[in-house]
Amino acid sequence: MVISDFAVKHPAIVAILLISLIVFGVIAGTALNSEMIPPIALPKATIVTVYPGAAARDVERDISRLIENQMSTLAGVSRLSSASSDSYSVVSMEFRADVNIQEKLPQMRELLNAIVDDLPNGIDGAPVIYLNEASAFLPIFSVRISSSMNPQALTTYLEDRVVPIISGIKGVSKINLVGGSHMEARVILDTAGLESRGISALNVYEALRANNLNVPSGSALYRSREMSFTASGAFDDFEELGNLTVGFGDGSYIFLRDVAEIGPVPEPVRVRIRSGGQDYIMLDVLKRDEGDTIAIVKSAREALDEMRTDTRGTVDYAVVSDQSETTVRSLKTVFSAALTGLALTILVILFVLHDLRATLIISVSIPLSILFALLGLYGTGRSLNLLSLAGMTVAIGMIVDNSIVILENTYRHFKKTRDRRSAALTGAGEVGAAVLASTTTSICVFAPLLFLTGIIGVIMNDLSLAIVFSLAASALVAVVVVPWLSSLILKPDDEVRKPRFLRKFEASIDRMFDTLERGYRHALEAALSNKAFALAVSASFLIASVLLLSILKVSFIPPTDTGEFEIHIETPAGYTLER
Q1: Do the bridges between strand 88-95 and strand 44-50 make them parallel or antiparallel, or are there none, so unpaired?
Q2: What is the 3-state secondary structure (H, E, C) of 190-235?
Q3: Closest Cα partner for 407 from 396, 392, 420, 389?
Q4: Where residue 225 falls among pLDDT bands split at 50, 70, 90?
Q5: Burial letters for 339-362: b for 16+ Cβ neighbours within 10 Å, e otherwise?
C-alpha cells in the first residue's frame, strides 16, 4: 500500500508530522468548550411591537404583515409566523440549525430600520428583537446575595459594579437579578386641592405622561457634519418633578407640589427570594449556545469572590445551583468509562499477543485516534459534551479493530521472516485496502446522521460526528502509524527475556484459546450440517427481537438526576406575597 510504504520508508517525516498533529490535537482538546449537552433547540428570534389601543385586525394589517414581508428576505429562515392581538404584534422566526443567530441580529435590525417610517406613529417605542437561544432559558449558575445594606442600595451596587463584570465574561448571554428593589417616586394627590383649583386627576396623569420623556428634536448641519439633537424632558430628581406644571389659575401656574405629596418609596415587591427566614437577591447567569459552561462559572466565581473582598464581607454570596459541577461530574463519568474500556482493551491484547511491544503499538493507536477526533471536533466548532464523549467511547472498540488487523498480519510475517521492515511493508500491503474499505462502510452507517434536520439532527450531530472522526482517524493510524512503529520496535519473542511463570501463564492462555477455537469449529460444523435448524434459530431470534421492541419504553431524552428538586405551589386568585 502506497501510504504504508511511505510511512515505513520515511520514518523521520512521519515522526515530524505525528508530533505536529499531537501538539495541535492537545491544543484543540484543551480549547474545546465543555458543556453537559449541546444546544437542542433550533435558533429563534421574536420581534415584539406594542401598538396601544389598536385592534387585532389593525395590528395585523399595519404591523405584523409589514414585518413578515420584510423578514422573509432574510437568509437562513426556515419558518416565519406571526400572532396579532389587541395592542400587540409578535413575529416569530425559526432559523436552520447551522445558522449563528448572533450574526443575524445586525441584519434583522437593518431590515427593521428600513420600514420604521412605514409603521404607525402610535406604536410604543420601536419593535424589539428577542433572541431565543437554546441555552438562554435556564441559568447555568445561580447565587443568592446577602448584605447588611438595604435592598435598594444592594440592588444598585450589584447593577453598577457586579453585573457589568460578569456580563463581560466571554459566552455570557444575560444576567438576571431576581428579588431586587429600586426606589420610585410616589405621588399622592390632594383631592381637595385639585377640586378647589379645578384640576382633575386625569390632567395630572396626562401631564406626567407627556413630560417625563426624552424626545428626538431632529438634526442640523454643523461644519459639514450632521448632528442629532434630543430634547431632555425626563426628571432627574424630586424637585424637578414637583415643579411640573399641571394647570393654570388665578393668573399663576399650578405646580404638582401644590396639589400632591411627592416622596421616594421602595417599589412594590413582586418577587421574593427567602432562605432561613431572610430575604435575598438572586443572581442568575445565562450563557450563549457557544459559551463554555465551566469557564463561565469559574470566571463568575472569581468576580463574586472579588466582590466579597472589596466589600470586606459586607456583601456575600452563596451558591444555589451550579451546572458546571454537574457537567464536570458527568464528563468525568464518561471519561472514566472510556479509560476503563481502554485499559481493558490493552489488557486483552496483551493476553492474546503475549508481546509488550505489539501491545504498545495498539495502545498508542487509541489515544492518537481520539486526539485526531478532538482536532476534527474543534475544526467544526463542536464542544466537548456527553454526546461527543459518548461517540468517542463507542468508537474505541472499532478504533482498535483496524490497528489489530494490520498488526496481526504484520506480526505473522515478522515471525516468519524476522525482518521488521519487510513484515511491516507486506503486512500493511496485504490488508490495508481491506481495512480502509471496512472503515468506510462503518463511516457510511453514521455519516447519514449528519444530514438529519430538526431537533433529532441537532442531538445526533455531535454523536455521529465524533464517531466519524474517530473511525477516520483510526484508519489513518492503522495504515500509517502501526506499520511505522512496527518497523521500528518489533522484536522476536525468543529474544525477549521473560520470567518462567510468565511463560507458563502465556501457555495456559494459548491453551484456553485453542479450546475456544475447537469449540467454535465444532459449532460451525454443526450449523453447516444442519442448515434448516440454524436458519430456524436465526429467524426465531429475529422475531423475538422485533417483539421485544414493543416492550421497550420510548422517550425523547432519558430522565436525569442532578440531586435537586423543585416545589411549585399554586395559590388562589388574589393572594399577595405578604399573604
Answers
A1: antiparallel
A2: CHHHHHHHCCCHHHHHHHHHHHCCEEEEEEEEECCEEEEEEEECCC
A3: 420
A4: confident
A5: eebbeebbeebbebbbbebbbebb
For residue 134, is pLDDT > 60? no
In this structure, the number of other CB atoms found within 10 A of the CB of residue 423 comes to 24
CA distances from 541 to 181, 355, 530, 532, 538 (A): 67, 39, 17, 14, 5
Say how far apart CA 517 and CA 405 lie, in whole Å: 18
Residue with the three cell numbers 428579588: 179
The helix (H) or strand (E) run that includes residue 408 is helix 386-417
The β-bridge partners of 143 are 283, 319
Q: How far is 26 from 452, CA to CA, in rounded Å?
A: 30
Q: How far apart are CA 226 and CA 221, in angstroms?
A: 5
C-alpha cell at 469: 472522526
DSSP H/E element including 146: strand 141-147
Task: Supply the DSSP symbol for 267.
Answer: P
What average pLDDT score do residues 116-145 get? 80
Q: Is the pLDDT of residue 233 over 80?
A: no
Q: DSSP string of 53-95?
A: T--HHHHIIIIIHHHHHHHTTSTTEEEEEEEEETTEEEEEEEE
Q: Which residues of 125-150 are buried (b: 16+ CB within 10 A; e: fewer)?
A: eebebebbbbbbeebbbbbbbbbeee
Cell numbers placing 221: 448641519
State the Rg of the chain over Cα.
35
User: Among 83, 11, 79, 3, which residue's Cα sits nearest to residue 47?
Assistant: 83
Q: How long is the chain?
A: 579
> In this predicted model, what pLDDT tens digit does every residue of 445-479 receive, in sequence order?
888 888 877 677 777 888 888 889 988 888 888 88
CA distances to 443, 451, 456, 490 from 464, in Å: 9, 10, 12, 35
133 confidence band (pLDDT: 50, 70, 90): low
Q: What average pLDDT does the structure give for the chain?
A: 83
Lowest mean pLDDT among 54-63, 129-138, 549-558: 129-138
Q: What is the pLDDT of residues 164-189, one digit of tens each?
A: 999 899 888 888 888 888 888 888 88
Q: Which three cell numbers stand for residue 114?
A: 428600513
* Residue 390 CA to its chain's centroid (Å): 16
User: β-strand 214-222 against 225-232: which pairing, if any?
Assistant: antiparallel
Q: What Cα–Cα distance (Å) separates residue 497 from each residue in 18, 411, 494, 575? A: 31, 18, 8, 85
What sign does the dihedral 177-178-183-187 (CA atoms) show?
positive
Cα-based distances in Å from 560 to 173, 563, 564: 25, 9, 10
All cell numbers assigned to 351: 493476553
pLDDT in tens, 415-453: 888 888 888 888 888 888 888 888 888 888 888 888 877
What is the pTM assigned to this prediction?
0.68
pLDDT at 40: 67
